[in-house]
Amino acid sequence: MTLWRGIHRGQTAPPLIRSSTNEPFGLDVIFNGDNPIADIVAVHGLNGHREGTWTAEASQANWLRDLLPADIPNARILSYGYNSRTHNAENLSLQSIYEHAITLVQDLCTYRRNTKTENRPIIFLAHSLGGILVKNALIHSKLSKSSHHSIKRCTSGVAFFGTPHVGTSAANFASIVLSIGSIFTRTNSTVVRQLRENSESLHTQLQQFNPISCDFQIVVFYETYKTNIKFGKRIVIVPLHSASLPGNQGGLCIPLRKSHTELVRFSCPADPDYLVVSDQLKILVSDASRVLETNSVMSTATSLTAMSGSLTSLTVDCKQPVMKLPFSLPLQPNYFVGRTAELNTLHDSLFGTPKTKGSSEEQSRVVVVHGLGGAGKTQLSVAYAQSHRHDVDAVLWLDGSSENNTLLSFRSIAQRFLDAARQANGGEESINPLSSRLPIGEYLSATGQISTDEKTLPKISKIVMDFLRSENESFTWLMIMDNVDDLPRYPVASFLPQSARGKIIITTRRTEAIQFGQPLEIGQIEEESGIQILLNASSLRTKAPTDPENAKTIAISLGLLPLALEQAGAYISRTQMQLGKYPHLLERHRRELLSSPNTLGYNQVSVFATWELSFKQLVEEDNVAGNLLTLLAFFHHSSFWEGLLLAPFESNESSETSEPTVGSPEGYKWLHELSSSEFKLTNTLGKIFSVSLAKRNAPSGNIHLHPLVHAWGRERLTPVSRKGKLVEAVVAIGSALEWAYRPNRTSSKEVREFVSRVVPNADHCIGLVTQEGSKEMFSTILSDRQSAKALFYIGVLFENVSKLRQAEDIFAAIVAAYENDPSILSPLMAVNAQRRLAHVVNLFSRYKEGETLLLQAIPTLISLVGKAHPDTLAAQLELGNVHHRCFRYAEAEGLLREVIENDTDASTGGKMGRMGREATSILGLVYKHKGLHQEALALLKRVLDQASEENQDGAAHLLTLKYRHTLILQELGHWNLAMQAYEEAFDGFKATLGFNHPLTLRTANALGRIYCFLGKYAESRDILDLVWKGQSALGFSKENETAQLRTLFNIGVLNREEGRPNEAFEMLDRALRAEQALYGARAHSTLRCQVELGILQTVRGDLEEAARNLEEALSNQLAHYPDSPMEHAHTRTALAEAFTQLKSPSQADETLEPALRFVRATLEPDNPVRLKVELAHATSLLAGGRGGEAFAETKKLVPLLESTFGLKHPISVRGRVLFKDSREKINDIEGDGVV
């Protein structure tokens, strides 16, 4: 087998030096080190072995010997062995764990004294129950007055691997210990029996380790894989909650992807877990000397005789500094990254030049770190304290969650000072003389512990604060008051000692706390740091190719909130889940994942539980504020503003239909009362802001909820409560829209802006309706007249802002509900929903559905509001447009004229309203189809002039009129002008309605067709592809809807022009069959498809079939559309070209003659329609042997073709070829002597 011998990261290990021993017990020098600065001492666990424990079975690599020296050459590495076998009776040791610990201390002291290294820092590595032995050794060393004391004094770090630390009870601890014993199937162990029998005393004994754990750096490595135990069972022996060390202040908890027995076995230097461990050991070694220096006290403060009886007299004289307290902070997971700007701001506020004029230099500098729970306020403070701990003599930690906890924290600070004073004197002076020199002596127990009696705690706190306020200028301190969230019941100011040497950080979710100091708000973390937190917490040290992108997805979905990222990482690590699977799980089980404390391995509240605490405080202060916060979760997370609730109650106007105002007091009393008073609403929002569950964004003024808070606000509710709040949200939004859509309001710019701000809130709210189940929620909403009316106005909003699918769903639900039970809903609202539903389905080109709805709605509207009412006119206009789109021009003209008549004001010289102008523009298109092009242009010019003057009906109305005007220009052959107009209209519709609105797509379709006419095939392809995708995204059903049929048709023509005949035939044939099925064989659009398919057949050489199809199409056009000469001209041109290729020039001339006569009489010489007819005529002349006439015609045509279509357009090329052929024909005739 290959052994890894010091080959790691390009380094070579120094020569190996080993001690000689026949037994695997005692100390063994694995590696002497190169100028070592620290000793690394490894201690195995139960049934372990001095070498075997650390050796990988597959490679036989002992990483202490074969890997670590290459990475840490400046450390001496030792391994300690002891008899811990549980199945070998011959070698079974009768020593207790404590006796093993004393032996370890004794051996280590002797060896270090003999090698003159007794002051070198020590770093212990302890596996499993070996960690208990190490803790016992350090406890013994701490209490010892002999040379054994040096071991604890020199210990700078401990790395625990799967060690079960003290749990919630002795019984719990015992069960974990016995689980370790159960790994070994041949257990008849005295040691295990002793552990079982003495687990309670051992549990109590190990409590003594917690007070000294802050004196050195601690890293905890824990297993994430299960271990095989007896009877085939597999369990995680020491899970994270047990491996975490209680009282480990500032220690790390790092997962390794190994089982309990393999936790300290690494096969090669590339092992990802080895890289993690070695990196942490490098840090422990490099920090070792500094840790010991920090823990030491100045020689001038080592004598307790310098004390004068009070805590403030811990100095030799007024010029000597008070001894430093050893650095100690509560346990925090070490996932903190980033926040550079916040750390710099914090430091500048604490140590920089005061920003407030007149700030007293005798006061403590106070910074209030505030923000949402889970944003990382505590971790920021800890990180700052760790990086600046050498700038002060003491870092003090206060639990600010309650007054009692703060008093207990001051008691702990006092205890720390006492312990530091005793340690400074080597522990040799008794407690009594020490306590007699301190003013807290009367509160000390016989063992030197300060009382926790609630009556004495305020007195002890005062002693500590008096000391911190003392005049001694040499002692500096940093105090962190964490979780100051219960301000109404918490006298914060009384716990802020003022001193020129004091620096105070307050962390809080309460914004009112900023009164106590300089505010520093903490929000979401930067994206890169959020990704790193997730990766660190999930222990993904070896990155898969997709991990960075998956981590980014998760980080963003969690709103870059540090605590949520840590929870996600802990869960991923614990379940060994792939990163890519977590987003789906989060989407389906967000509440469970972010509520459960089991996703965190340390003593930390989950992110959802954190917000529940804030919500509880809020409700206790103001129940209405709790109601409002919950309601905000049903609006958009960053688009709500007060005006949404205030607008409906601005005046007492009644609605047009005299319905009760949406949101009136009868059904939604609390909401009505809150919204009817701007002052009360503002104050209520202020209370929500005060607990940091929401904030106001500048400069928009909108209310912002973190996306996770937004989700939590809903997911914390029961299904019934959630649905009830959702109905309230619908009512609130609908009432605002009812106010905005009242007559004479919608033309106001202010109201239009108001409506645009409502959109994201309505969109989110109806999205939640869909999540809850549209059918069920619509049924609930429509069972009450107020909420039903609110839903109707949301439908109107969606119709107006191009959210057509949502509008269709809402209007269809209202119509169905009314048909099911007419007693609940207003008849006028129901019929208007029916009318608007027809408009929406017509936009999707589902004209048969729209026509059916309108034929039902119009009589009802006439009976309810009369013929001249805007609602009736809107329905008639819509039906007239359907008739036009379905080629029923007579029916269309009749309805459109009726709308124009009823929406024209004779007293103003015939000015029309919006619907009158719409009707006139559609009538112009009817005229176009009848061949009345000039009359059509006159109608469109009239309405465009009026609409431009009015300038109040919105951009979409004006753009629609321009689009229709352009259709007529295109028909008349003004293609370049039409192209420019289409481009302007397309850009306008995109800006106004969005790209995926049917009107935008319809305009883009026309633009793609005109590009094709002009030979701009690449541009045509690009835009038609976009149209096809956009229509598909809207749910158009291809052959069943007219709009997508038009796209299919246009792409077919483009394919033909680009030389793709097979693709062209497939699309044009599909379009033709669909048009025949929808509108019949004689419909205008059907005949157009037939003509273009005939042209394709000519191109493919199917001349006889082409001629038959084109003759049939022309016959139907002449019979059913006799007033459409432009269409006739196009078909005649195509048929003539087929006849020409069939060697029938006489038939070609006969077919083309009416078209030639028409275009020469009505169109300019450079008109593209005329040019096509003229070119077909010249082709026929040449084919008929009239080369001279063909030459004369093409000589005039070619310059016009090139200037109109461009040099490269196929029709220009064709013209030049015809000119050349006709000239050659003339030359041939002259050569034969025939002129």
From TrEMBL:
GO cellular component, one term: endoplasmic reticulum
DUF676 domain: residues covered: 40-179
Subcellular location: Endoplasmic reticulum; Membrane; Mitochondrion
Claim: Membrane is one of the keywords in the record: yes
MF terms in GO: ADP binding
Keyword list, A-Z: Endoplasmic reticulum, Membrane, Mitochondrion
InterPro entries: AB_hydrolase_fold, DUF676_lipase-like, NB-ARC, P-loop_NTPase, SERAC1, TPR-like_helical_dom_sf, TPR_rpt
Pfam families (alphabetical): DUF676, NB-ARC, TPR_10, TPR_12
Domain NB-ARC per the UniProt entry, residue ranges: 361-513
Family: Belongs to the putative lipase ROG1 family.
PANTHER family in UniProt: PROTEIN SERAC1
Name this polypeptide is given: NB-ARC domain-containing protein
UniProt organism field: Podospora didyma
